[in-house]
Amino acid sequence: MAQDFKENNNISEERAKGPFAHFFISGWNHLVRLMGVNVLFLLFNIPSLAIAFGFSIVFMPGIVSAFNLNKFISITADAGTEVVSYQLLSLLMVFFVISVTASLLICIGPFQTGFAQVYKDIRNGTSVSLFGSFKVGLKENWKKALVSMFIGIFLSAVFILAVSFYLNMKTDLGIVIGTVFCVLYVAFILVQNFAYNLMVTTDLKLGQIYKNSLLFLLIRFGHCLALGIVVILFYILIPFVLLMSASYTTLGIFIFLYSFLVIAWVQYGLSYYTGRLIERYVAEDEEPSEENSEET
Q1: How many CB atoms lie within 10 A of CB 129?
Q2: 3-state SS class at 76
Q3: Least crowded by CB within 10 Å, which of 95, 114, 136, 176?
Q4: Rounded distance between C-alpha atoms, residue 34 and residue 38, angstroms
Q5: What is the pLDDT of residues 264-277, one digit of tens each?
Q6: DSSP secondary-structure letter at 280?
């Protein structure tokens, strides 16, 4: 009882410092748990990594051409000609695989609801073990998560294909449409993250979950734009720079950061923000209905 009171008191003190401070304090206090989630995410998503690798084989030629990535994977041969380095191409494929998996576009949905439950318990200060929280989230939401998983895989293929197709047109119209699909690609990453967190926090049906996820994106556009920049930074720019630098040092940094820290912290950040949106918009919508039912 005394321990629970102390934990609740600490949570109140953290919240009094503001949401931004509370996010980092709660994350730091559960650093080992978040590192465990990061490792388990990669282990449990080995099938997703395999699917993403298949995507890279299919879509990588178009992506390389669309974004002019030849200069990053080409080297000068002894004869003085430019040839593709298969080592650099492999690193580019690793970048693609980690990017689409960590962003939840291609992941094992039921497992992700387990991780979302862990994030929820961390932000709420609930004293539950990592595996205890994981089992609860998985058991209660696996059906909806399974459908969401296939939605993610299908729409990811559509967006990636559209981006590579239109950008490879090399026309002004193609660049405009391709850029729009790039924006939609990042927006869909946010929607998928919102959806998994809504699953473990509400009893909404899947259609309502995606409706609310889209509404979150629209009504908090400014904040979601900032979140989109964070997603681009940690899921695209940083891993690309670390891997394409093609040195043992940057490769080691990449392996450490994305095996133990970055994926879980970014997902927890998105979960934390989703929780605040749910408290503000979803929970408040449910309270009036309860009052009305009592009056009637």
Answers
A1: 11
A2: strand
A3: 176
A4: 6
A5: 999 999 999 999 99
A6: I
Spacing of C-alpha 169 from chain mean position: 29
34, pLDDT greater than 70: yes
pLDDT of residue 259 exceeding 70: yes
Q: Tokens for 240?
A: 């690309």
- pTM equals 0.88
What are the start-end ranges of the H helices in the chain?
2-16, 19-29, 31-44, 46-66, 70-73, 86-102, 109-124, 130-167, 172-201, 206-219, 221-232, 238-244, 248-260, 262-277, 283-295
Which residues on adjacent β-strands are paired with residue 213? Answer: none
Burial class (CB in 10 A: 0-12, 13-18, 19+), 73: buried
Q: Hey, is 83 helix, strand or coil?
A: strand
Token code pair at residue 174: 């193609």
Residues 96 and 255: their CA atoms lie apart, in Å, by: 14
* Six token digits for residue 275: 């929780």
Hey, is 58 helix, strand or coil?
A: helix
What's the distance, CA 134 to chain centroid?
17
Q: Hey, what are 75's tokens?
A: 């080297």
- CA–CA gap between residue 246 and residue 89 (Å, rounded): 11
Q: What does the pLDDT read at residue 284?
A: 45
Q: What distance in Å separates the CA atoms of residue 103 and residue 185, rounded to the nearest whole number? A: 11
- Residue 125, Ramachandran bin (φ over 0: left; ψ between -120 and 50: alpha; else beta): left
Check: CB of residue 111 under 8 Å from CB of residue 45.
yes
CA 254 remoteness from chain centre? 17
Cα gap 95→92, rounded to integer Å: 5
187-213 confidence digits (pLDDT tens): 999 999 999 999 999 999 999 999 999
Q: Three-state DSSP class for 236?
A: helix
* Distances in whole angstroms, Cα of residue 53 to Cα of each of 6, 159, 283: 47, 17, 40
